[in-house]
């Protein structure tokens, strides 16, 4: 279905572009994976780019969802900030990290002056700044890569006349021409008979930009820029190149290390120097205290320790290229699948540890940073099981978890999605999990335990709003029971007591308290004492959740 043409670049154009980019990368993901030979031939560039854009698009949709009940629409600044932030926290791999910086570079221009929209000249400036920002983020830029494609697109856009649609078309054409030239710039691409995979993905993103502005997809065929008659021929070419050892230096780094980092600019400058000495493929993107770090190293521990010294690293992912990778040329031994596993989304490090001790594979969801479906797919694959029980632990993740489940089912994994809406419901489900009984029976028991657990959270309101309990002001303490605001107060402990009393009016045998870092001192003691004094035969268990976004989570079962 054709899109409505956009004359200017506004919030709606950003939303449309993100959606079209996700669709374009979804259609070309397998092809891009197949031609991935640089910097490491691990066949995941298309997937990494897709997951990066998925996170960006999800963040943009969340901004629009916040305005659905009102007559206003998001501002351009709010939307592009969300896009850039979503890409930053969801960036995967070398190319995904660079794409995140491209989007951040655009956002820095598009948010100047808080304009409602920008014209063609603003788009030219945004594309130029994006290309420059991406190149600066890479420790040792290499021509014939996505950086070359981005630079060519920006140069072509700068020379174009007309409206935003004309600028986008020029950028797309410049990107296509640069992509076609990449084999002549990078020997590994020429030997494999392919163009740069990251550049191919960026061409798809620029094609989506054209469609967002004009309502029509570009007529140029991106397949024409890939050597060989088809995807299978390209895969064969890549395989031959790998056999000849041309895909990477012998004895190259064994690990890919990626993490988000909270740190000051000066500390990140020192981190870049240290990581550059440890390995290669170093890309550090971000700013304003939050960074995405990507590097290939032999000493993964040293790379993480460098992050700890610089600030606070989290969402740490370490991939061992290992036997069978281009660096070693060996064969990776097959690992036997376990029969059953549990994969759960958890809101804080403390609960992540608790779930892990109970045998679950966890995905950490930080405040304001919900995981994309690709992260859940990755977690299911990491669990390496024939059967998987998936616990989203958040009502807003229902569709994300369903999409992840559908994808891994196509890979032959049996998945059951239990619609847990809180981490305390997940704890109840995990408590009755028995991997040695029949899968269907285990799922029924876990679902029943989760459904029998009422859940609540005590949070601090960020803004004035209407609630089912009345109007709240910024700074008020809200007690939500089963997702709805039931209590408005001024003190966390007092509000928590009121919430707990209301929940126990319907009975209960066990109260679960999960304390966040922001919970006031002594709140657990007060609530435990309240249970002992007023509710006979009711037990209480307390966990430390860490940085979970809410001062307190409560479960009653």
TrEMBL record:
<dbReference type="InterPro" id="IPR036117">
    <property type="entry name" value="DhaL_dom_sf"/>
</dbReference>
<dbReference type="InterPro" id="IPR019986">
    <property type="entry name" value="YloV-like"/>
</dbReference>
<dbReference type="InterPro" id="IPR004007">
    <property type="entry name" value="DhaL_dom"/>
</dbReference>
<dbReference type="GO" id="GO:0006071">
    <property type="term" value="P:glycerol metabolic process"/>
</dbReference>
<dbReference type="InterPro" id="IPR050270">
    <property type="entry name" value="DegV_domain_contain"/>
</dbReference>
<dbReference type="Pfam" id="PF13684">
    <property type="entry name" value="FakA-like_C"/>
</dbReference>
<dbReference type="GO" id="GO:0004371">
    <property type="term" value="F:glycerone kinase activity"/>
</dbReference>
<dbReference type="Pfam" id="PF21645">
    <property type="entry name" value="FakA-like_M"/>
</dbReference>
<feature type="domain" description="DhaL">
    <location>
        <begin position="12"/>
        <end position="211"/>
    </location>
</feature>
<dbReference type="InterPro" id="IPR033470">
    <property type="entry name" value="FakA-like_C"/>
</dbReference>
<protein>
    <submittedName>
        <fullName>DAK2 domain-containing protein</fullName>
    </submittedName>
</protein>
<dbReference type="InterPro" id="IPR048394">
    <property type="entry name" value="FakA-like_M"/>
</dbReference>
<dbReference type="Pfam" id="PF02734">
    <property type="entry name" value="Dak2"/>
</dbReference>
